[in-house]
Amino acid sequence: MTTPSPVTSQARYHIAVVDDEVDMLDVLQDVLQEEGYRVSALRSGQALHELLARDPADLVVLDLKLAGENGLQVAREIRATNPVPIMMLTGKGDETDRILGLEVAADDFLMKPFNLRELMARVHALLRRAKQLSVTLQDVDQDHDCLWFDDWRLDLTRRVLYDPRNRPVNLTFGEYNLLESLVTSANHVLSRDSLLERTRGTDSDCFDRSIDVLILRLRRKIEANPKHPRYILTERGLGYVFQAQVRKR
């Protein structure tokens, strides 16, 4: 591993790191603290639950395999009540584990061993996107770039989806990026490869099935009947199409 260069202090952010390997936990704590973050180093999912109850975190870095615990189950429990971004660490190359992680709304993955510069780049990206999504509901500003489909509003400036009752919909970063890609190309079929490139970037640790998982999750949030979708349709052998009349401001 290489040591990243110092950056401007990020002390306003609190990062919870959970790993039962003491050496790895020490490395993660040291590098994040050197970057200026406030770090809580924990060795179990139970300790994470207790921490979040008294001291909310801006990001959770969670190992997939914990001694006596299942990191996926921990993520499920956190995601059920808390929108905090979750980055999962795994030492396995098993695609199944990563798909399961996406199903419980992990926002990113990093395979061990990893380069510390890549870790920090992903941490910065997750926190930056979280800040963009945390803006409270307000009247739409005149300079906001928005798209409408039926009574849904996609605020491209704030990166927030509002439902027909004008309530913000809780989307993960991957879900939002995918929805934006679909809506901005409405009524055009997009292949999985195209969606993968648009939503995750060419330098991310991604895989083709992640798009299918994100599509499933999006349907659960915007479709009245996810099993018979109205908006996000599957074009077998080709990809997906967002079928709607999309209007600009």
Give an overview in words.
- A hairpin with a 2-residue loop joins strand 4 (65-66) and strand 5.
- The protein folds into two domains: 14-133, 3-Layer(aba) Sandwich (Rossmann fold), CATH 3.40.50; 146-248, Orthogonal Bundle (Arc Repressor Mutant, subunit A), CATH 1.10.10.10.
- The protein is built from eight helices and 14 strands.
- It is globular and about 55 Å long.
- Mean pLDDT is 82; it is low at 1-9, 135-140 and 201-207.
- The strands form four sheets. It has a five-stranded parallel sheet with strand order 2-1-3-6-7, sandwiched between helices.
- It has 249 residues and is an alpha/beta fold.
State the helix count.
Answer: 8
Query: What is the strand tally?
Result: 14
Please tell me how large the radius of gyration is: 19 Å
- Give the CATH topology of the largest domain: Rossmann fold
SSE sequence, one letter per element: EHEHEEEHEHEHEEEEHHHEEE
Strand adjacency order, main sheet: 2-1-3-6-7
> Superfamily at the CATH H level of the largest domain?
Response regulator
Poorly predicted runs are 1-9, 135-140, 201-207
> Would you tell me the structural class of the helices and strands?
alpha/beta
Give the name of the CATH architecture of the largest domain.
Answer: 3-Layer(aba) Sandwich
- Overall body shape: globular
Provide the CATH top-level class of the largest domain. Alpha Beta
